[in-house]
Amino acid sequence: MPFLIVDDEPQIRRVVRNSLAEMADRIIEASTGRDAIDLAAAERPELIVLDLGLPDLGGEAVCREIRQWSTAPIIVLSARHSDQEKVALLDAGADDYITKPFSPPELQARARAQLRRARLNPSQSAESTVEVGDVVIDLVKPSLKKGGVVVHLTKTEWDLLRVLVRHAGRTLTHQQLFREVWGNSYGDAQQYLRVHVRSLRRKMESDSVRPRLIVTEPGVGYRFEREP
Model confidence over 40-65: pLDDT tens digits? Predict the structure, then answer.
């Protein structure tokens, strides 16, 4: 299956195409939102890289339309830096968000993470043991080891870690995480998460001040990195 690149600037499409060429069987391109929707429906791409500044449709509308019938990962590229916009795009169905200017290695790493997550079906993902450096996470037992030593997690920490790991490589908004972990509970999502993420980082990260596993997307949410 191909990758779909959506951007109205030919030079940006070229940079993205060159960055992802070795990862894709074939790359197709669109310069408008409507063309993107039509190509996504006809070609069923494995990955979609979507710019927000399209001449006809907003990126959020394109995301919502494609997400109605496709589970392909959508990575949004944009020169806009608004936290509210990032949250809206992720809630509309985007899987990740990269601001311009971006580096090709970062785009490649994000794309690899999204493809790996998409290729795992839910049962495989739920049963997998994740190893990152000296950290081993068994989501079935469950157990967490760092440097071969068992680390104790509270129930809430486990619930939060499960959600992050099962969506590895995807930026989850504060509200998405809050709903997954606390269900219908009410409260300050950012504050709840900040406390528990800080605790997880102290237990998992080599340097909790400069975390590499649980990454903060400022003003938006958190992302678990399997390739820190």
Answer: 999 999 999 999 888 998 888 999 99
pTM of the model: 0.69
Maximum distance among all Cα pairs of the chain, rounded to whole angstroms: 55
Q: Are residues 159 and 72 in the same domain?
A: no
Same domain assignment for residues 112 and 186: no
CA 92 to the chain's CA centroid: 13
Pairing state between β 143-146 and 135-138: antiparallel
Helix, strand, coil % (nearest 5) of the chain? 45, 20, 35
Q: What is the mean pLDDT of the chain?
A: 87
Domain limits for position 14: 3-119
- What element of type H or E holds 163? helix 155-166
Whether the pLDDT of residue 18 is over 50: the answer is: yes
Q: Give the CA distances from residue 33 to residues 66, 78, 197, in Å, rounded to whole numbers and listed in that order.
A: 10, 14, 37
Residues 119 and 71: beta-carbon distance below 8 Å: no
Tell me the Ramachandran region of residue 44: left when phi exceeds 0, alpha when psi lies from -120 to 50, beta otherwise: left
For residues 30 and 105, state if they share a domain: yes
Of the chain, the percentage scoring pLDDT greater than 90 comes to 49
C-alpha span between 106 and 200 (Å, rounded): 25
Same domain as 194, residue 103 = no
